[in-house]
TrEMBL record:
Transmembrane regions: none
Domain Transcriptional repressor PaaX-like central Cas2-like: 104-179
Protein name: Transcriptional regulator, PaaX family
Species of origin: Brevibacterium sandarakinum
Domain Transcriptional repressor PaaX-like N-terminal, first and last residues per copy: 19-81
Positions of the Transcriptional repressor PaaX-like C-terminal domain: 189-285
Length: 291
């Protein structure tokens, strides 16, 4: 609804909790099943990933409250379907999570300048949270910057909060800073924290890729022999990864330190997707069909 920004990917709480895993399952699989799944199949699948039935039911209640799921019976069978109002946000999340885009040094930047009075303090807080969630860096309190390809997403955020008329968007070349641009970027974005997120992902999942395959565009590693294992690995992999592309806007090389781990983790995620996504999808379809 206007005046409220309702992201499908929450930055908090962190990955691995039942609500986050269920949200990840919905984004990965529920639309592929036609948008509906029976409760028994959902409980079975989440149990495979280590989530108890009671925790899954609690998470279902939370996601219903957030407007992601609707309870629906089909032929007297209890189930859940994707709320149609959430489809656009899910599709937007797909693009951000699975189509990582890095900015080139010669591509433009997007700057957002806004001024909101104290009476609109709550919207000001929401806007700052939204800009952070889109990967914008704070130059000053009312001036934010991100790669130019995020222009459409910030337009949507401003419109959703009904503050578009209070903001100005500039599409510009690289700003001229007093210090080297990389030093300025390190102040605008929390690059150390972001690098730690990438490194954590690498440390957790590089073990699944043989050393010989850890090069860009290399062949995919072999998927696990057990489709259930592929399902669990892929679910947890995406759950760990899904917030990283939101806080990492894809800065160009000129804005990053020379030992930046981001592209390594981007390629690792792509390799694991090529290996695990299809067997995981097949397992979900089998369980959902009651086979």
């Amino acid at each position: 609804m206007p005046g409220e920004l309702r992201p499908i990917v929450d930055l908090e709480p962190g990955p691995g909790n039942p609500t986050s895993l269920l949200r990840t399952f919905v984004g990965l699989h529920l639309r592929d099943l036609g948008g509906w799944i029976r409760v028994a199949a959902l409980l079975e699948l989440l149990a495979t990933a280590g989530v108890s039935n009671s925790s899954t039911r609690s998470a279902l209640s939370r996601l219903k409250g957030k407007g992601l799921l609707l309870g629906e019976k089909r032929e007297s069978i209890a189930g859940y379907r994707v709320d149609p109002a959430a489809v656009t946000e899910l599709e937007r999340g797909d693009r951000r999570i699975f189509s990582y885009r890095g900015q080139k040094d010669d591509e433009p930047w997007c700057l957002v300048s806004y001024s909101l009075p104290e009476v609109d303090r709550s919207k000001r807080v929401q806007l700052r949270r939204a800009l952070t969630g889109l990967g914008f860096g704070a130059v000053t309190d009312g001036l934010w910057i991100a790669p130019g390809h995020l222009h459409a997403e910030v337009e949507d955020a401003l419109a959703a909060l009904e503050v578009r008329e209070r903001a100005t968007i500039f599409i510009t070349q690289t700003p001229l800073t007093a210090e080297p641009f990389a030093q300025a970027a390190a102040q605008w974005w929390e690059l150390d924290r972001l690098a730690a997120r990438h490194t954590e992902f690498l440390d957790r999942y590089e073990q699944y890729v043989p050393d010989a395959l850890r090069t860009q565009n290399a062949a995919s590693p072999q998927p696990p022999a057990d489709p259930r294992e592929a399902f669990v690995l892929w679910l947890r992999c995406v759950d760990d990864w899904k917030t990283i592309p939101y806080v990492d806007p894809g800065l160009p090389a000129s804005a990053l330190p020379p030992d930046w781990p981001g592209m390594r983790s981007v390629e690792l995620f792509a390799q694991l997707r090529r290996s695990w996504a299809e067997p995981a999808r097949s397992h979900v379809r089998e369980v959902a069909a009651g086979k």
